[in-house]
Amino acid sequence: MRLAHGRRGVFAPRKMPKPINLRRVFSGKRVLVTGGLGFIGSNLVRELVALGARVSVVDSLVPAYGGNRRNLAGLASRVKIHIADVRDWPRLPSLVRGQDFLFNLAGQTSHMDSMTDPITDLDINGRAQLAILEACRLHNPAIRIVFASTRQIYGKPDYLPVDESHPLRPVDVNGINKIAGESFHLLYSRVHGIASTALRLTNTIGPRMRIKDARQTFVGVWIRRLLEGQPIEVWGGEQLRDFTYVDDAVEAFLLAAARPEGIGGVFNLGGPPPVSLRKLAETLVTLNGVGQFTVREFPSDRKKIDIGDYFADGRLIARKLGWKPRTDLRTALARTLDYYRGELRHYV
Amino acid sequence: MRLAHGRRGVFAPRKMPKPINLRRVFSGKRVLVTGGLGFIGSNLVRELVALGARVSVVDSLVPAYGGNRRNLAGLASRVKIHIADVRDWPRLPSLVRGQDFLFNLAGQTSHMDSMTDPITDLDINGRAQLAILEACRLHNPAIRIVFASTRQIYGKPDYLPVDESHPLRPVDVNGINKIAGESFHLLYSRVHGIASTALRLTNTIGPRMRIKDARQTFVGVWIRRLLEGQPIEVWGGEQLRDFTYVDDAVEAFLLAAARPEGIGGVFNLGGPPPVSLRKLAETLVTLNGVGQFTVREFPSDRKKIDIGDYFADGRLIARKLGWKPRTDLRTALARTLDYYRGELRHYV
After folding, report:
1. What letter does residue A90 receive in the DSSP assignment?
2. How confident is residue B11, by pLDDT bands cut at 50, 70 and 90?
3. If you write DSSP's letter for every residue of B204-215 in order, what string do you get?
4. Which residues pair with B144 in a beta bridge?
5. What is the mean pLDDT of chain B?
């Protein structure tokens, strides 16, 4: 699928809403982050602490997922950390009670794992989400929620860039369950008045992502291999993708929670202009100064659930929430590499 | 929403596929029907037995659902009945093993119940469906499946009649979970080769439906009230709906299983031309010879999840599977009333 001529730059509409003072919104507020020891969750927690919020974290630390105690290193005294699984219902009411905000990021992210162990994916991405919302409905209906959804639910795009009204045609069990999780949030917002917003994330990269394997993002395992002197393995190579730097993603979560315009809404996150996976690998190798990559055919089990080219139309979130990506891809990759040069042993 | 001029009669396209000999397809075949003591399930079982199939039934007989032993009265010696819940995983492999066909009709159907007990709805309409498909993938990948989906997943229609490419915008938890259940079937068909077809049912009526209350269809409780000499309560009254007579629905299930053209597909079931709920009530009272109805405002909790007018575009199923409704509404209602005149005490 080709890029329509002149459609780049869709991320900068002329009109953006007035800036908002995030410190004023979050300072002193009680905030719960599920998946808060994970990649985006922990970066969000760090920013919330910096803004003066009183942050609690729920994380299961399931080894195959994104949680890592290292991600909140140095914050132990300033953040309340509950090692708990969102599938553990009886704990949910006490966790959500009294919170002003809930950033709901706990999830199973591996597309391949969702195909080999679909019930676990459903239990985390569907059933636990419904249980969290029920806990809010019964014990804290005034809470403000932002849910981490995914571009995976669009499936193979009909057109590019993909806007929020693109049909949902999930290609794997994970996509089906994430649709359910997102839909529950929007339904509870509409019917029960539990103010919720869903962000459909594209590939997010940056410090604290999982690099042990490709369960969270293939970029993670690329970085690991590069830093360990192994060749990067690129599948296909010509697919276009967009990448959000994690600091930008964190800002989107904060704006989504802070702005009433987001209530009941769904917003794509995009990034700077998309690149091919081959180009991404080249850039990483160049930034690292040393390394190599090999291009190979898609493994057949992976090919079945691949979505081809994808990049987001980010105009809606710019217009409604005043968010656009600030970090170009080169900077994002350079910062990520820098982080793991010092931290590699904590992540492999 | 109004009916576009001249769009009635969409159920009779000029080209239909060649007739198919259903006896040849099902005679001697092993067929499993989940929800087989329920409304549509039991009517389907009766027809399958008549066609010479070796039928097994799974039904949980949960009191709030549609299962009723009376529905298979007289067939005890010819049908193997397992009282089991599709949520009971360990039983699934032995149930699906060796079956040629699976008609997957077990479900929680009450929209209101899905809002007050959403997790149960998810467990039955989402999680159990995934477990059934996993059992098929692991123990009987050659099975042919037809899944009972619902028009509820479209939500409030953008246009009428509603075709299969209408956006899915569920208005309640039931709709969200039925989308997941349907999506799992189509995904397993596409990715794992478990041949599946989904039928999106509209309001189905006929003998053996639940009439104790409105949990399956409001028409059920109307018929009960009429036969018990109570006034029918019509909410709103002007909403247009289409109704499929159960014998026609059964034929659609059989054709969907029999025709390879249906594999991986989703099809609306429609009915004869739609009527308003007020007109439906009038017709019922007229057919019964005695009775009355009152029109009242929607209760507010129900209003929030009402979908307004709905009727299906049935052209796709006519063209691909050669199905169209044969029974006009008056005949459908008359036969239903006749059945419950004799059987009322077994259903209340």
Report:
1. G
2. very low
3. EESTT---SSSS
4. B101
5. 92
User: Which residues lie across from A245 on neighbouring strands?
Assistant: A205
Smallest CA–CA distance, residue A22 to chain B, in Å, is 33
Among B62, B6, B12, residue whose Cα is nearest residue B34? B62
Cis peptide before B161 (omega within 30 of 0): yes
Contact B118 A126 (CB under 8 A): no
* Partner residue opposite B131 with nearest CB, options A119, A134, A172: A119
Assign A60 to helix, strand or coil.
Answer: coil
Residue B217 confidence (pLDDT):
87
Topology adopted by domain A22-205+244-271+311-326: Rossmann fold (3.40.50)
Please enumerate in sequence order all residues whose Cβ is within 8 A of that of A262, keeping only pairs 6 or more positions apart, or say none. A146, A197, A255, A256, A320, A321
How would you label B215-231 residue by residue, b for 16+ Cβ within 10 Å and e otherwise? Answer: bbbbbbbbbbbbbeeee
Total residues found in chain A within this entry: 348
Residues in chain A with CB shorter than 8 Å from the CB of B164 are none
d(CA A240, CA A325): 18
Residue B82 burial by CB count (10 A; 0-12/13-18/19+): exposed, middle or buried? Answer: middle
| Model ipTM value | 0.90
pLDDT value at residue A14: 58
* String of DSSP letters for B54-119: EEEEEE---TTSS--GGGGTT-TTTEEEEE--TT-GGGHHHHHTT-SEEEE------HHHHHHSHH
CA distance A106 to chain B (A): 18
Is B180–A179 a contact, with Cβ atoms under 8 angstroms apart?
yes
Phi, psi of A7 (to 5 degrees): -95, -5
Burial class (CB in 10 A: 0-12, 13-18, 19+), B4: exposed
* Residue A267, beta-bridge partner list: A199
Q: Name residues of chain A where pLDDT drops below 50.
A: 1-13
Residues contacting A275, CB < 8 A, separation 6+: A240, A241, A243, A283, A329
Contact A93, A32 (CB under 8 A): no
Find out whether B174 and B152 touch, Cβ atoms under 8 Å: yes
Residue B5: pLDDT band (50, 70, 90) is very low
CB contact under 8 A, A115 and B191: yes
Can you give the residue ranges of every domain in chain B?
Answer: 22-208+244-273+312-326
**E-strand stretches of chain A:** 30-34, 54-59, 79-83, 101-104, 144-150, 196-201, 203-205, 232-235, 240-241, 243-245, 266-268, 275-276, 293-296
Give CA–CA dist A335/A341, Å, rounded: 10
pTM for this one?
Answer: 0.92
Confidence of residue B4 (pLDDT cuts 50, 70, 90): very low
Residue-wise pLDDT tens digits, A251-269: 999 999 999 999 999 999 9
To the nearest whole Å, the CA of B187 is away from the closest chain A CA by 7
Q: What are phi and psi of A123, to 5 degrees?
A: -60, -35
pLDDT value for B14: 58
The torsion defined by the Cα of A109, A114, A118 and A123, in degrees rounded to 10, comes to: 0
**The CATH number, out of the four listed (3.30.450.20, 1.10.260.40, 3.40.50.720, 3.50.30.10), of the domain defined by the range B22-208+244-273+312-326:** 3.40.50.720
Question: Residue A264 in contact with residue A320, Cβ under 8 Å?
Answer: no
Substitution target in A86, A116, A174, A176 with the highest count of B β-carbons within 10 Å is: A176
Question: What pLDDT is recorded for position A339?
Answer: 97
